[in-house]
Design brief:
The protein has two domains: 259 residues, Galactose-binding domain-like (Jelly Rolls), CATH 2.60.120.260; 105 residues, Immunoglobulin-like, CATH 2.60.40. A seven-stranded antiparallel sheet has the order 4-5-8-13-10-11-14. A seven-stranded antiparallel sheet has the order 21-20-24-17-18-23-22, with no helix packed on it. It starts with a strand and ends with a strand. By secondary structure, it is mostly beta strands.
Length: 372
């Protein structure tokens, strides 16, 4: 039975009513790493606050930004959170090689239905809400990482400090198919500033794909959000979908949204609000403690371990006693669904003794990273 798209009944939804939005966490509701990261600048590319949204830069910029999850949202639209960029150290003019964008990264196997690289390639429509005191022209780019192809268009913030909804359509691309795997294929970039290496070419602004040319990727009219410490930029309600018409934002249940984010990053424990249980483990021998952590969803790839390194950050209680542990390392048996953690430095006891493990001090946390 065919299912049509809610809000646009004339357009058949290729993925059913649910999950038409290619973007994960477009409403900025999930922020496992924390709600604020300060002093972001030269060398700080990566994920810091809202899940699946990275601070991405090139060159050696001198600006600094605070990136945060915020509660300033469009009135009456159903959103609770936004992503905020706040300039805290100004950079009046980007150097030639410098560029700053907020980026979303997508697996190839999630976009096969776009039929990219065929005569039936689908158009893409991007819609979002944005707000800034800095009016003017901004650049959005979608980028094919598998075939080094780019497609850019601009949008304009017309009125300062006012939420505005933007809708942009990109043509389908008959050249270059996305790889059908769990690697990075499609990137969405919201530029906040760029130097002449990025703006000195011909920016077509027509929504059509072309071979990668760095000088053509950003409009020469792109504003510099870093030119004043008064500048702020907010975004929420980001939706990318097949077709040439934007549908209403697809609100997913919080638990579903969280599970989708946990495929890429899973915060198991965080002592910020007090001790948190990690799990049950045992003494493999008199100086070797081990515990298995099961992931709530299958990770995108074998995850890397993120762990606090501090005296007594964790505690293993067993047989009426305990050991304070500083950190862990992962053994070689890492799978997409579980990992074994080992401490051979502070552990002690009798082989076979069981016990439980929990965070023990401020700053202790345990997380697993499988990001693109």
């Amino acid at each position: 039975m065919a299912i049509t798209r809610i809000g646009n009944p004339a357009i058949a939804d290729q993925r059913g009513v649910n999950f038409r939005n290619i973007i994960i966490n477009g409403g900025m509701d999930i922020a496992q790493r924390g709600t604020s990261a300060t002093g972001l600048g030269n060398g700080d590319s990566g994920y810091h606050t809202c899940d699946r949204w990275s601070f991405n830069e090139n060159g050696s910029p001198t600006y600094e930004f605070t990136m945060s999850q915020d509660t300033d949202v469009p009135t009456g639209q159903g959103f609770a959170k936004s992503l905020k960029m706040d300039c805290t150290t100004a950079d009046a003019a980007f150097a030639a090689a410098d560029a700053l964008r907020i980026q979303h990264r997508i697996e190839g196997q999630n976009v096969q239905y776009l039929k990219k690289g065929t005569v039936n390639a689908e158009s893409l429509t991007l819609s979002f809400w944005v707000k800034s005191n800095k009016t003017g022209t901004y650049t959005i780019e979608i980028y094919d990482n598998d075939n080094s192809r780019q497609n850019g268009k601009t949008y304009t913030i017309d009125t300062a400090n006012t939420w505005e909804k933007k809708t942009i359509t990109f043509a389908g691309d008959t050249t270059g198919a996305f790889d059908n795997d769990n690697g990075l294929s499609l990137l969405i970039g919201f530029y906040l500033g760029a130097g002449s290496d990025w703006t000195s070419g011909t920016f077509n602004n027509d929504g059509n794909w072309e071979a990668d040319s760095k000088a053509d990727r950003v409009s020469s009219s792109q504003v510099n959000l870093a030119d004043s410490t008064s500048n702020e930029w907010y975004i929420t309600g980001v939706q990318l979908e097949a077709g040439q018409v934007a549908s209403d934002f697809e609100f997913l249940p919080f638990d579903v949204n969280l599970a989708r984010c946990q495929r890429y990053y899973f915060l198991k424990a965080d002592h910020s609000t007090g001790a948190e249980n990690i799990g049950v483990g045992l003494m493999y021998n008199s100086s070797d403690f081990r515990t298995v952590v099961n992931f709530p969803v299958s990770m995108r790839t074998r995850a890397s371990l993120e762990v606090a390194t501090a005296s007594g950050a964790y505690q293993h209680r067993r047989n009426g006693g305990f050991n304070n542990l500083n950190d862990f390392f992962a053994d070689g048996n890492i799978s997409l669904t579980s990992i074994t953690l080992i401490n051979q430095s502070q552990a002690g006891g009798v082989a076979g003794q069981a016990g439980y493990l929990f965070t023990n001090s401020s700053g202790a946390f345990l997380a697993f990273d499988a990001e693109l």
